[in-house]
Each structure stands twice: as C-alpha cells, then as structure tokens.
Design brief:
The protein has about 210 residues and is an alpha/beta fold. The protein has 2 domains: about 140 residues, Response regulator (Rossmann fold, 3-Layer(aba) Sandwich); about 60 residues, Arc Repressor Mutant, subunit A. It contains 11 helices and 5 strands. Strands 2-1-3-4-5 form a 5-stranded parallel sheet, sandwiched between helices. Helix 8 crosses helix 10. About 30% of the residues are buried.
Length: about 210
C-alpha cells in the first residue's frame, strides 16, 4: 500500500517541484501541501499522513515550532525537515524538537525519495554535511567529561551564559545564592579560569553548553 506524504513549505515552486517528484514514485503519494503549519494539529488528525515534510522557516509558525506541537500529540509520525539552512542552531533545534531527519533543499531532487524510504524504515536521513556536523558536535561534547563538570554545574554555567545573576540562577534552580557561589567556585577550578566572563567564554568556545 502506498504511503501518504504531507508537505509544509511556503515556496509554491518548491511545493510543485516536490509534488512532481513524489508522483514519479510508485511507493508514495502526496496527501496535501500547505504554505504554513498553523493548522498542523487539525491537518494531522484529519489526514493521518505516514510521513511529513516540513520547511523550517514559514509564516505564522516555524517548522521547528510545528514539530514541537506535533510531538505533543503524536510521537511516532516521521518528520523530515527540508531547509536551506545548515547551521548548528537550526540543525539541533530541529532534532531537539523531535525531527526524524534533516535534508537540505539543494539535495531534494536526488535524495528526497531515498530519505522518505529511510525514515519510514526507522532511519534518520541527513544530508552528508549535516551528518558530519552532528558527529563533530557529539565529539565536542566530550569537553564536559574532560573537565568533570556535573549536570548541576553545567546547568549553572548555562544559566550564567544567559546573563543571569546569582539570585536569578538560584531562583531558577531552586537553590540558595550561596550554593550557586559554591558551585561556581568549583566550576572556576575545574575550567582553570578566574572569572565569570572567562568561564562563559571557555564554555561557549569549547561547546560545553
């Protein structure tokens, strides 16, 4: 039985191009194509797609926000992000939101059908440079282990990097300001820095947070 595909992309030419591409496949058919994802919950409940193709940047609601919304009521339907972006922030925001795969639009003509097949088979399709970026980032997270930073210390370091004061960090993590100071003293020792600015700079540069 052919699998149903639901598409969200605000570019009409691309929607038509993807539609024509899917028509060349004997395995899939296009249920519908929408220019925005503002009705995504209703769309999914009414149309029941087997797989979703989702643009990242759309009017009304971004693709990343749409995926977050989908995952609140449907954990299983695969969602492949289609985008021109290949920067870390969009990649990881999409993955953290619950995306199943990530494909650059420049690779669509040659990779889309393969990617849909792969994601329906339980895989996580990604453009080669995206996969490389993910692997490099995974390797970089070893820095936290290198410095023996605890989960709580990483939380405090992350909050500090957002410009929060000791009192704000304490309120956010439900601990006392004195406990925050104690943690920060240990963080400084582990990172071999002497100030808040140095700690945050090192954490960001070495991707500890």
């Amino acid at each position: 039985m052919n699998k149903a595909v639901l598409l969200y992309d605000d570019n009409s030419d691309l929607r038509e191009s993807i539609s024509n591409l899917i028509k060349t496949s004997e395995e899939f058919y296009l249920l519908a194509a929408f220019e925005n994802s503002t009705r995504v919950e209703n769309d999914l409940k009414e149309l029941r797609p087997d797989v979703i193709l989702m643009d990242i940047e759309m009017p009304g609601m971004s693709g990343i926000e749409a995926v977050k919304k989908i995952r609140k009521f449907n954990k299983k339907v695969p969602v492949i992000m289609l985008t021109v972006f290949d920067d870390n922030k969009n990649v990881f925001d999409a993955i953290c939101a619950g995306a199943s795969g990530y494909l650059l639009k420049k690779n669509i003509s040659e990779k889309l059908i393969i990617a849909i097949d792969e994601v329906l088979d339980g895989g996580a399709p990604m453009s080669p440079n995206i996969a490389k970026m993910v692997i490099q980032s995974m390797h970089s997270t070893k820095g936290a282990d290198q410095y023996n930073l605890t989960a709580r210390e990483l939380e405090i370091l992350g909050s500090l990097s957002r410009g929060n004061s000791y009192k704000m960090i304490a309120a956010e993590l439900f601990i006392s300001p004195e406990t925050v100071r104690t943690h920060l003293k240990r963080i400084y020792e582990k990172l071999q820095v002497r100030s808040q600015t140095e700690a945050v700079s090192k954490a960001i540069n070495e991707r500890l947070i």
